[in-house]
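hey all, quick one before standup. I had two proteins in the batch that finished overnight and I want to keep them in one place so we stop losing track of which output belongs to which input. First protein below, input sequence then structure tokens straight from the run.
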Amino acid sequence: MDTLTQLKTPAANHTSTRETKEEVLLHIRRALISVSDKRGIVELAKVLRQFGIEIISTGGTHQALKDAGVAVKSVSEVTGFPEILDGRVKTLHPAIHAGILAATDNPLHLKQLHEHHIEPIDLVVVNLYPFEQTIARENTTLEEAIEHIDVGGPTMVRAAAKNHRHTVVVVNPDRYQSLTEELAKNNGAVSFQTRFELAREAFQHTATYDTMIASYFSGLQSDTALPDVVTLSMKKSDTLRYGENPHQSAALYGKFNTYFKKLHGKELSYNNILDINAAALLCAEFEKPTAVIVKHNNPCGVGSGETLIDAYKRALATDTKSAFGGIVCVNRSLDAATAGAINEIFTEVIVAPSYADGVLDLLMKKRDRRLIQQVIDIRSAKAFDVRGVIGGLLLQDHDQHRISREGLSVVTKRKPTEEELEALMFAWRVAKHVKSNAIVYTRKDRTLGIGAGQMSRVDSAKIAVMKATEAGLDLAGCAVASDAFFPFADGLLEAVRGGATSVIQPGGSVRDDEAIRAADEHNVAMVFTGIRHFRH
């Protein structure tokens, strides 16, 4: 009997009855296929036809199936209405959407379908216009982007997902294989569990699509402040072994892997990813050949030089003990000499924009060490800092502020010398990436002591001196940076006792005069930046 005759019989096995609900399989009799990504679609359609499933389709998909010899009916044949407005309107018709949305265990729905000569659509295979690929191309205009905003596709996907008890929806070509296997197993039917999973995936798909469009439009308004509504939609790129600790589950979402490509070694851990991010952001502060060593999200050494090997040796000398098991990041192609020096101690991860010939062969001898290539300059990345809190998120602009010499204010009687000024600028770039309270002692091309994450700024100053002393480094005549103002003169005096002769800090304390007097009394040159770099 034909479909309309079957509709008169609610017990027909189109869908489950209300009594049996999820337990009953959904037998597929009619499918709508409309895809932008045509991977595997001909093969899927041929399988559907083997089960006697009628196929209707649109535009380019209809032509592709027809060319492949698949029996297919056009949407216009079903609706009795042509595609119009350059294809903007083709599936937006009751003959399509009533077929998708009908609850075929509902007698009233069946009656109305019969009255209007509409047949149910049991399977919807749809993926959307390639908006993401369109806006990723250089020089894409707003008009071009708008034409790649799908309307009919998301409407069908949402309708089918809503009606998943009676309609199967597939948005991902990677699902075609499992779908055909299930059809074969169940003689052309699909289980409720599969329908539910596919519906969940479909809603995620449309949410991601809409978020992408909203983000694109927001990005066109460069002067827009933080959004009133935050829409975040990122695909899972990796399931991680665990989070910060083994009892915590974790995953990586978004496009981190487009910036950093793993060339060798074990899978990256949650903590590895945090440290890679921290090391790369700090390394990007410097133009000269620079090496950064990070441990637990804090730098334990930073060095610059005319050559990368000199830079690495200076970074390592700051704290050879903490460097063990750390993350090394460099901003030049990793050469053989520097790779050999890094290879002398255990290093968890190495990050470089590229690797010279033969270097990977050397470094890959240690099986578990992760070797990462930074394939995109992160200085061009636009991003917010996002943190989860109970019940919500904290969102802020990424701290991309860079101080210039012209932005410094000398507040003491003595001005810094040229060498001191270079050291102050170096110290300030590092302090920006050290957990607060941060105190950093440096020369013009290397760190000497780093005090991080203490509740007291005085304690940070003491710890930095202690670390320098343990490393056998001389602090006499060095520069010191404080990420925020000295609330009292005691922190500054601690730095002076350590050997600092020049200081860079934001200023802004009600006791700035006290700190300035203390600096003058000890013939210390001090500059204010007028900006702080807290990092919690």
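OK second protein, same deal, sequence then tokens:
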Amino acid sequence: MKYTVLAMITLATLGTLPVRSAQTVEGLPLGAGYPYRSPLDLVAATETGSVYIINHTGASVERVDINSEALTASVPLNGAPSGLVLDPDGERLFVTWGTADGAVDIIDTRTFKRVGSFRAGHTPLAPQLSADRRTVYVCNRFDNAVAAYDIESGKQVATLAVGREPIAAAITPDGTKLLVVQHLPSQAAMAQNVAAQLNIIDLETFKSTATILLPGGATSARAICISPDGRHAYVTHNIARFGVPTTQLERGWMNTSAMSIINVAADSWLTTVLLDDIELGAANPWGIACSADGTRIVVAHSGTHEISVIDRTLLHETIDAVNAGQATTTFARALDQIPNDLGFIAGMRRRLALPGNGPRGVILTGKEAIVTQYFSDSLARINIADAGRSSVARHILVGDPVEPNIVRQGEMAFYDARLCFQQWQSCVTCHPDARTDAVNWDLLNDGIGNPKNTRTMLYSHETPPVMITGIRPRAEVAVRAGFRFIQFASVPEDVTVAVDAYLRALRPVPSPYLVNGQLRTSAQRGKQIFAAAGCIQCHNGPYKTDGKIHNVGTGPDELGITDFVTPPLVEVWRTAPYLFQGQAATMKEVFTRFNPDDKHGRTSNLTDTQMDDLVKYILSL
């Protein structure tokens, strides 16, 4: 009876949510203009033999009978779904979707219809259910916060600010702790340790009890899972080796793929294991799952279109041996050496190829792994139990196949590490979601020994010249140079043309500083200050850039370069850190710490209130 009452209450709120027919996913339009499903994640209903899939650009939730491999039901959503969680009794499915005006939909799995919906924050994802099934916890990505929502009323009952872009979450088996992973580093790029972090939240008090910094260079975190015994958590991410010039790729010189291990009981980092082989990268790790018996961990590699099947028992036995100072076959002799040992995982892991393109979400059901294949509009099923034979994956379409247009082809190439020498990285490795990884790279475009902060790809083709020193006259030149000098590969011209088309198709995500798409009163005042301080002289036009090179007093770099391209300010709220070497962790620091001579806008005489208004306006763009 309680469930019926819940449905009646939440249906009342369902009709108040607006339909978002013009919504985009990272700038790519939903609907007929981009007719792909893009399966992103999934959960299993083991009792019924079904799996539930969220289709990101397809704006739908689908049910597939895994025995017959048939699509049995579908529910359209009003926006792009980003995460899902199934009630333990299997009767309710909670799906997060949307951007600035995000929401959580409740789906009755018996009728496969929406029975409720309530508002969430900006770009909600990674929903988790409380042990008593009365509360759903959601990562509101661009609010930089985690929120708790009462399911019966649909009301937000608590919120907690965490680090930058919370993107993944998991609850311990005993229901007492929520682990939340941040997507990108929040430090200045010149900081001593630049890395994404993880928060451990006590669910009784809804307060963070620990903030764990992942190893230096950790960025582009994507997923987390917790072992069935609750002792360890596992986080997928990249490690950017940005401390050296990008003169080669071998042996993970630039980027390595990683899985960090968290000691949950001690609220501490245990170690980080590299997922690559010595001469073959396993780029862009995404989804991760632990088997119910705790013997295996499976990681989906979205850049190399495969999964890693890891012997969890042997992994921890070896880690324990290293920690105890015992002799092992590994190079590492201490826990803090394991993150630099490319051979550590040898003999503990099998790499299994998948039949599709772009694996992301992964679940384990008995002897099988089931994986969403984002760019193939399909699932893969693969036996992971029998190590004595070659496992061949089955390919399950989640709808009629659609031939990729040039934008889709470009997006696929942007994410594809097979286009890179030894598969160490793809374009998205340094430009997650085609934006920034928040670190500095010495790319040799303008000499050696002068690293520069990664720039967003948004509007790169509309705002030449590109690169922070303007060394490339157009984005088209930079795309081709990137494949040649960063991925150390020669790709066909039609591939680079498609990448150009994909990048041109990108559109900004609405700023979290806006209210219903409009400037707040403080930001309106900041707009006037922006003009009065002279910022508008260089940051003007539709992209807030004049496309010219200026010396605004933020240099010189190590080679004496002082003049830099005026960066566009559209969507600047999500591209920290700022300035040519990421010196400023926040926009406020741009004006308070790094503008002593007022060459970068006349801001030294602003009051605290005026400074806050200026910053809020810029971050609203």
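Flagging for whoever picks this up: The CA atoms of residues 22 and 519 lie 21 Å apart. The mean pLDDT is 92.
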